Amino acid sequence: MFFRLALLLFLLVNLSEAKEQDTIKTIAFVQDDMSNDFRRAQVYEAMEEVKKHKDIRFVYSDAGAKKSLLVRQLEKFIAEGVDLIIIGTNDSDILVPSVEKAFSKGIGIIVLDRKINTDKYTCYIKSDNYQIGVMAAKYLLSQMKKGGTILMLQGFKGNNVANERTNGFMDTISKHENFNVIQRRGNYLRKDTILVMEELHKKGVHYDAIYSHSDSMLSGVRTFYTKYKLDSEALLSIGVDYISEAKDAIMRGTQDASILFALGGKESVQVALDFLDGKKVPKTITNPIKLITKENTIYVQPIF
């Protein structure tokens, strides 16, 4: 009799646990490179948002900027049968076959920040990167009445963000005389930017202002300026993202402006929850951008 009761209790407990497991949904975040502080913060913001929901499991991967690994990690999550995947990619084409396969299996796909060259996804969350370039150009134009040379520090090749931030800037600047633009790639990373600045310094390249596709690269510029005992306060500069380092630098006068660019991690999870609840979600969400200068830093919270 005791054995039968124990067996029945065991079966009931396991059945209850199985039912609970069936109700838990899994959101996976496939991130291209978490050595980039912005990309790392996207994942952590999503993770914190998921913690508010006990019926959601959150997992993530870091490809360390390796495209082949990014594909393998995405394929792994597809094979595991996760319910939704958030994707941060460094290439618009390489993930297309895997994304289309996941989408055909009914797995939700949220493309965050950098687009993928297919329409087989659930939602694309972005900001207007072309207008970021336009906004940066207009700010520098307002400060450089007599013209001059601008150093543009770009993100890496292979995705839309760097291209759009470049095109918006160049299309605006090109309408004005007496401006020259030098383009170099810092790949959104401090260390790569320091190498770029070292090369320019050795060659004696002159510039009057910097437009950086990310605040992290401007941080690399300041590190370089400190090493060579150069005056960063005399350099006109604008970045993108508006991280805490940028806010501090703007308040100190070692950076002039930044353009607020939302992480999108929280928004991704909110869209994911609607999708998992069977609700219709928008195909595209565009987060607003905002120019940040010393005048409004105290009113705007950095993204991290």
The CATH superfamily of the largest domain is Response regulator
Strand content: 15-25%
In total, how many beta strands?
12
Summed over residues and divided by their number, the pLDDT gives a mean of 93
- The gyration radius over C-alpha positions equals 23 Å
How much helix, percentage-wise, in residues? 40-55%
- Briefly note the CATH topology name of the largest domain: Rossmann fold
Give the spatial strand order of the biggest sheet: 2-1-3-4-5-11
Per-chain topology:
Blueprint: H1 2-23, E1 25-31, H2 37-50, E2 56-62, H3 67-80, E3 84-88, H4 96-104, E4 108-112, E5 123-127, H5 129-143, E6 148-154, H6 160-173, E7 179-185, H7 190-203, E8 209-212, H8 215-227, E9 236-241, H9 244-252, E10 257-260, H10 265-276, E11 284-287, E12 290-292
Parallel strand pairs: 1-2, 1-3, 3-4, 4-5, 5-11, 6-7, 6-8, 8-9, 9-10
Antiparallel strand pairs: 10-12
Helix pairs in contact: 2-10, 3-4, 5-6, 7-8
Written overview of the protein:
This protein has 304 residues and is α/β, with parallel strands linked by helices. It folds into two domains: 2-126 and 263-286, Response regulator (Rossmann fold, 3-Layer(aba) Sandwich), CATH 3.40.50.2300; 129-262 and 294-299, Rossmann fold (3-Layer(aba) Sandwich), CATH 3.40.50. Helices cover 45% and strands 21% of the residues. The protein has helices at residues 2-23, 37-50, 67-80, 96-104, 129-143, 160-173, 190-203, 215-227, 244-252, 265-276; strands at 25-31, 56-62, 84-88, 108-112, 123-127, 148-154, 179-185, 209-212, 236-241, 257-260, 284-287, 290-292. A six-stranded parallel β-sheet has the order 2-1-3-4-5-11, with helices on both faces. Strand 3, helix 4 and strand 4 form a beta-alpha-beta unit. Helix 2 crosses helix 10 and helix 3 (67-80) packs parallel to helix 4 (96-104).
